What we know:
Layout: H1 2-30, H2 32-54, H3 67-70, H4 72-90, H5 92-113, H6 125-143
Amino acid sequence: MQFLLIGLVIAGGMGLSVEAGLLGPLGQEVGDLWATLSIFGVGAALTFLLMLFFSPRNAPSYFSQPGWQLLGGILGPVYVIILTVTTPMIGIALTMIGILAGQVFKSLVIDHYGLFGTPHRKIDRKRLLALLFIIAALIFVAQG
C-alpha cells in the first residue's frame, strides 16, 4: 500500500511540473495574476463537481473548523504565483528542485516538532542526508 501511495505522490509531483510549464508561458501572455486565477478558477469548478458527487453527506461543517486550518488556502495562490514568475526565468527543473528543497526542509521541521497535530518524527541522519542531497541537486542544476 505504501508503494502505491508513493507512486501517487510522484505522479502528483509530475503534475506540478506540468503545471509550472503551463503557467510560465500563460503568465507571460496574460499576466501572472490572471494565470493564477485561471488555475484556481478551473480547479475550484472541478473540485465543486467532485464534491457534488463524492463528498460524504454527513461530514462536519467546513465552517465549524478552526480558522487557522482554513489559512492553508492562502498558501496555494502564493505558490502558484511563485511558479508563474520563476519558471520562465530559471526553468522548470530549477524551480521544482527549489520548491522540493523548501518542502522537504519545512516538512522535516513540522514532523520533528509534531506541528499542526501531526505525529512526531524526529530528524535523523537519513532524513538530513536526504535534504542535503536535494540541496546538492539544486546547486548542480543551478550551475549547469
